[in-house]
Amino acid sequence: MKKGILLLTCICLVGKAVGQEPSDKVLRKMYRYVTKHSKAYTSLKEACQTIGHRLTGSPNGARAEQYAFDFFRRAGLQQVRFQPFEVQSWQRGTVWLGIAPLESDSFQPLPVATLAHSPAQAEVTAPIIDVGNGLNEDFQALGQAVKGKIALINIGLMGEVEGKKNLHRSEKTALAIQNGAVGVIMINNAPGKILLTGTASVTGKTIPIPAVSITNEDGMQLRQELKRHLLQARIQMTNHIGNIKARNVIATLAGSDPQAGKILIGGHLDSWDLATGASDNGIGAFAILDVARLLAKWKAKPRRTIEFVMFMGEEQGLLGSRQYVKQALAEGTLDQIELMINVDMTYQPFGFAVQGQPQAEEFFKSIGEKIKSIDKSFANLFTSTAGLHSDHQPFLLQGIPVMSLSGNLPSRVIHCYHADCDHIELIDPQGLMETVRTLSLLLYQLAQAPSLPVKKMDEEALKSFLIANGLKEPLLISGDWRWGN
Length: 485
Description:
globular; Glucose Oxidase, domain 1; 14 strands; 37% helix; 23% strand; 14-stranded mixed beta sheet; Aminopeptidase; alpha/beta
């Protein structure tokens, strides 16, 4: 009986706030309700147990898409749809890596994982060359020596790295290919014997050389061996490649003001297949699902329309978000989006990262102060720098304002990113609930605000912003830079 009274009270209070900025009283009610009734963790645990991994193009991926669709419908959202798209599917088959002295046929096997978009079949034997961090300057220092070799590269940055900006593993692989390497061995940054995967392709298409990853422990030992004598590696692999259909899942909560714009809150539902993807991006995707469920339960009528999007294919090259933007451009609806909120591995939020919108700091700080007055753990920090390689990227490259939440990911979670240890046991229910709570408070305030002080960047402003944030080089490597050299 008390639960019913509490729910009714929340609905009534939120109802009074329709069409105006929510009062502190409404936000406090919302805070308490999410604290008590969030189901993000139990939903994520259920999906991990019943679906497993959520690899795009696999039967598991299709089950995850249907799970999200059914979840939105059960939550009471009336406008729920699939957005289908066709992609080149990649699924791992067999892989073997052996290491031997240069003039020996006695190869010793190492535990290994294939990096996605490696060829359907490959067998390469070649000398190993250490390219360190795999930055452009590292390849340039070696010159022609990389040609015909298997490049050994750190996924992260090691050694003297002050002032250096890391590249994505796919960009390092692209540089290896450009410099004539015949294979790539990536060393995991996480300590110990953790194996990880991820795409080695900047385009989401098959690359011409095999790329694999090994554990940090094995990588450090291999590097020490290379200092003593020349080594060679043999990589053998098979993979499954072919076109398949995948689906973004989109649910809409219609706004009360038809003249107002739209807020898109999205995150990728897909995961890699070495584990269940509980942290990447289970915590983000299932936080969004829970926020949508709670707003529907409250019968909230926000001023702006809120669109919840579960993207597929992020791990294989931002395929779902690229498709969304491509279709919105064709339909002339992209400019309806006032703000895109990307939720990718967001956990225990403490601030806002609003890319390229420094003029909006005061506005977001005022929203953050309301959250901080209720939740003392929220630090209310604000940044306006830029980053790539998640589903906000296609929106950012069209000048659409994008943001995410800065958060506290424990090292045990970071170390299992893309790895064989990314299971539900990593996730703290309290931390995930805090993500849902902060997202709910943020999203409702944004949806009710009279106006949002964010603006679409024109071509020149966007170009200058990307250059200022050191993103020209990775966008050139990926082929996404459209302003010439």
